[in-house]
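Exercise 3.2. Students should predict the tertiary structure of the chain below and write it as structure tokens, then compare their answer with the key that follows.

Predict this chain's 3D structure.
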Amino acid sequence: MVRGKVEMKRIENATSRQVTFSKRRNGIFKKAYELSVLCDAEVALILFSQKGRLYQFSSSDMQKTIEKYLQRAKDDNRSTEHLQYEAAIMASKIELLENSQRKLLGHNLVVCSIEELQEIDNQLERSINNIRAKKSQLFKEEIEKLRVKEKILLEENARLSEKFGFRPKNTAQKQKEITIESHSTTAMESEVVTELFIGLPTSRNAS
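Answer key:
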């Protein structure tokens, strides 16, 4: 016969309530004993009836188990308080960082003093210098990579020219020609012919 689902509410009949209490008390004590034996667990169970009668089970010394529980609960409480304290400090630091970030972005500057504005200006200046330094470093690294690539290409070009019987143009001579052409172009650009004329524009056109 299948048992029906027991409704979880207080049993009104006193006799039925006492019978159910006795059965379930024995059952829970049996489960506690089995748990302690099968799993080698330290189990302590304290139970008071409706009339205040004490029932207890302990797999070891009850007093020692209770003392261990109280000590562990005390340690857990301290740990919780410490975590709450650390969380409060972290929240305060986050708020300060957010305020600093907003000020660096130009917000909430009305409440800033001259000293605070000067400090913000110094921070921005340092940030710009760091950005420029990093940018310059990346440019130098990229130029160095291009030089290495150029060297490899020149060596490959020389190897292929030698292989197929072509006479490659001397690299130093080529560089010298480029330098001469560059100087010539600069000299031509620097030669500017100027005329000094005093008078009305119409007179100049007529002449």
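Discussion points: The two ends are 132 Å apart (CA to CA). The first strand starts at residue 44 and ends at 48.
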